[in-house]
Amino acid sequence: MNRTWNVYLSGEIHSDWREKIIEGTTAAGLPVHFSAPVTDHASSDDCGVHILGNETSAFWADHKGAQVNAIRTRTLIKDADIVVVRFGDKYRQWNAAFDAGFASGLGKPIITLHDDVLEHALKEVDAAALAVAEQPAQVVQILDYVINGNLK
Questions:
Q1: How are beta strands 32-35 and 82-86 bridged, if at all?
Q2: Is residue 11 exposed (0-12), middle (13-18) or buried (19+ Cβ within 10 Å)?
Q3: What is the pLDDT of residues 53-75, one digit of tens each?
Q4: Can you list the domains of the chain with their CATH numbers?
């Protein structure tokens, strides 16, 4: 099959997991285009009030930011062939859980990526995923197998 696969990388922004997946797929020569949310934490938090004006309540400031970010997130998830959702252990990633639910609702194939310590907390999300990985290299191997049928 001669096509470029669109893979959306959702979730945790405090480690280099995205870079590892991108490097691994590039090294494997896989025809993949990656997209992701805005990963600059301050920009993501402040985009709503920066563009649309200040709010006196943190709730409404966050609400504006979430709505502006959702324009990008929803569009890119809808365009994705596969959605990879990374859950880290340091922060609660409610947005990642929402992205997984949104992708599942659209019938998108989901690969979750998290340490085994989070298995219980993410059991419902993992149940919707078609694969549950613990390492970025496993995601690369899944993509290689799905795209090329390679089982190394």
A1: unpaired
A2: buried
A3: 999 999 999 999 999 999 999 99
A4: 5-40+82-148 (3.40.50.2300)
